[in-house]
Amino acid sequence: MSDLKQRPFYYDERVLSVAGGLLCALLFHAPYLLVHKTYQNGTAGFLVIFQLIFVFLGLFTTLPLLLSGLSNGLKSLLIGSGVALGIIFLFNPSLLGLNFLLYYIGPVFILVQRGLLSRNVNKDQLEWYPSGLLLANLIAYGIGLIILQSYLTDWTHETAQLQLQFTEQAKKLPSDQQLYYNQMSSMMLSFFPGIMAVSITGLQILLALFAQKILEHKNLNLRPMPRFIDISLPWWLWIALAFCGIGVVAFYESTIGLIAKNVILLLIFAFFLEGLSIIHAFSRKIKNGNFKLRIFYLFVIVFGWLIIIVALLAIFEPWLQLRQRFSKLKG
């Protein structure tokens, strides 16, 4: 792991923090600027190409903050986040800055602050914050975002209005496609807060792992890479799932029912990740486990319904004890 005293000047905490904040603001703001230019000047080919490139690069918006935070600590992250937030508010003093704070800085803060927590097991060994609890913290934050988005935007009313617009657009389609279009648009709208929460959580997890991999390669990491097979979720997620199921049944058409449906979607994502960790543990105990694991992932991509099966493995893990059973197998 990293030795802060032996780093060259460009690895200085302040340099990395400010540079990370500047790059983060650029990656966040560039797609919006290009979209604005495209609407002003028309859809010129080169503008569309640049727009697509910057939209792709926008997926890596928080990577600079994660790199500085995971290599220098929470203080570095806060400095970089402050720089990025200040630039975004300076050039666009609107809800865009609030969105950046909630959907970008919030999850990154949890990943860095929780991820760098440790305690001494003995004189020569540190125990790092468990990956399952770290994931649970992100899920709790995502639940908060779902509730906030559902209430602040009056999503029940907004969904009804948007569905009317989609229904009008569907009338332009052939009659045999209108029903399918309306059903798909209705489902997507009702699950939009949950889809957003899952997308944000999943993306930030991937970026954090990518950042950690880069830092390990450069020997700049403060903590070792978390092991995927160690994911073990806390009990409150099962209780939340049960309450949300009751909420969907009792308040299906209300805002509470909408929130419950979307929280269930986010919880399924969390259980899916734990289910994958169980499958990873099993793959270590069988012959050609890595090859079979790749085949399994291919099947998950092709047959999306397998996500539910994997999530169910984690949901019933407290009773099935699959991880414990697999640990007794001879690898």
UniProtKB/TrEMBL annotation:
Cross-referenced Pfam families: DUF2232
Keywords attached to this entry: Membrane, Transmembrane, Transmembrane helix
UniProt key word Metal-binding: no
InterPro entries assigned to the protein according to its UniProt record, in alphabetical order: DUF2232 (IPR018710)
Residues spanning the membrane: 15-34, 46-67, 87-112, 133-152, 191-211, 232-252, 264-283, 295-316
Chloroplast found in the keyword field: no
Domain of life of the organism encoding this protein: Bacteria
Name the record gives this protein: DUF2232 domain-containing protein
Organism listed in the record: Candidatus Nucleicultrix amoebiphila FS5
